[in-house]
Amino acid sequence: MIFNLEGLTVYFPYEYVYPEQYKYMLELKHGLDAKGHGCLEMPTGTGKTITCLALITSYQLAHPECGKLIYCTRTVPEMEKVLAELRVLQAYREKHVGKASEIMALGLSSRKNMCIHPRVADEGSRESVDARCRRLTASWVREKHMDCVSREEETSTELCQFFEDYEKEGPDAVLPPGVYTLADLREFGRKKGWCPYFLARHMIGVANVVVYNYQYLLDPKVSSLVSRELEKECVVVFDEAHNIDNVCIEALSVNLRQQTLDAAGRNITSLSGKIERAKQTDARRLREEYARLVDGLAQQGVLRRGGGEDALQNPVIPDDILREAVPGNIRRAEHFVAFLRRFVEYLKTRMRATQVEQETPAACLAHLQRSAAIDGKTLKFCYDRLTSLLKTLEIVDTEEYNAVSLVADFGTLVGTYQAGFSLILEPYDERYPNIPDPVFQLCCLDASLAVRPVFEKFQSVFITSGTLSPIELYPRLLSFNPVCISSLPMTLTRECLCPVVITRGADQQAVSTKFDMRDDPGVIQNYGRILIDLAATVPDGLVAFFVSYSYMEQIVSKWHETGVLQQVMQHKLVFIETQDVVETSLALDNYRRACNCGRGAVFLSVARGKVAEGIDFDRHYGR
To answer: Between vectors from CA 254 to CA 251 and to CA 257, what angle results, nearest 5°?
Structure first.
């Protein structure tokens, strides 16, 4: 339907609009008109995604000065769902408006989800794919290959033909207007022979709608690489944002374990060897790097990358990066490696503690200065200096150096921030109190630190979800002033929900997940009995939500010991959500296949987790 909303023509691809959708659009329009931020809650299942897309794309059509829509989701399935809705909307707009309504919309994800190179795409983890890709696309690898080809010599280096063909096209490598899912981009890449990952990165600048993960805006290491060029007029939407404070905190938090420090020590030894070899074979590179560092790392843009070696950027928020020369004591490569070794040894010493310790970054820096003669200013440059060294030594296999990068990340954040952070050292895992397993955590305590640059850079940012309760808390958590804030109820024209609350089990014992009752063996057994009975009675798909990941692990472990899971699996297959996105996506896909083939399945998930919002358990997927 096409209707007028306070002077704005809205193109909505369905025959009816719910009252809450109309109110949601009104709130969105008020926020856009005021060029301010908003916080909106509308229940899951009321068409929040299509409502948001319809209003903002209609606003873009009526106000050409309005920038692109940056739509942030938490998972790849959510991204695909948003692009599918957008495709329906675009088909409707073209039918009624014609060519004038054409838009460019695309999804962006990691190389792991977009690569079409047969050998690289088969690598297991995201880090492996990234490292293998850089091995084929780094500028110095390509230069060596071209030198060998020009001298008609045999070359052992391999290049990615998709990336080479994309680079040859230059500015002419563009996507025609349309809505592109990740599968569409891969298909287009195969057809043209171009790399879909770098093509999508290039097309962000001209697209009208970009759909990608929260991390591309909130994590400084990724956002300064991908989202740096986005204009101020962009409209940003964080969908399913009930956990946005956790995402912000995780983006600026680092955990170090004993294994990490051991691996970092090996990385440092490897770097020392590479520096010595470089001195003997190509000392010019090290001299040039030293000269650049004397002039100033950030000012000279020495870390600006091109091609495929665009490693992660500084973990610090861009405005907080020091714009001055690198301290003299870490300019030379061998001095910097000695500095890193000293820092790792200090951390190993701290790990030997037998009691839980908590301190502020300022206290940690004072102790570090006394114990290892390392000052805060030098630590601030740790991550950038390491990245510069890896580039100078022409190291593309960054996965191998993850441990030392994590240590440098830790050091840079400790050296940069005083307020909003805490350092916690836990010598034991609470589940195994007799086995030493120390963890040194740098915990960000202020969610507003990571999201502050987003609110400052873009004129309209909307936080939206099905469960933002209490909604007044989010502006305080994230330190922003919304021009519109609203919690919209669901309109039910008929009674279509029948909630059943079970307070007692089959043995008449009370059941509850209240904190003081949830560990009771009788409660755990009764919940298991309820699940067995439901699995035996309810056809197709069954979804069970737990209060937390740790509680779910504990219950599933107990159910396994007592034979509950075996009894459930006599009726249905069992799939479990984990904190790993790839594992969860795979489990969800297999759950749907089990429901489709009639075998039936149980999906054990977490309330307010990755699957709880944004995934539809409709029809036989959620009986």
So the answer is: 150
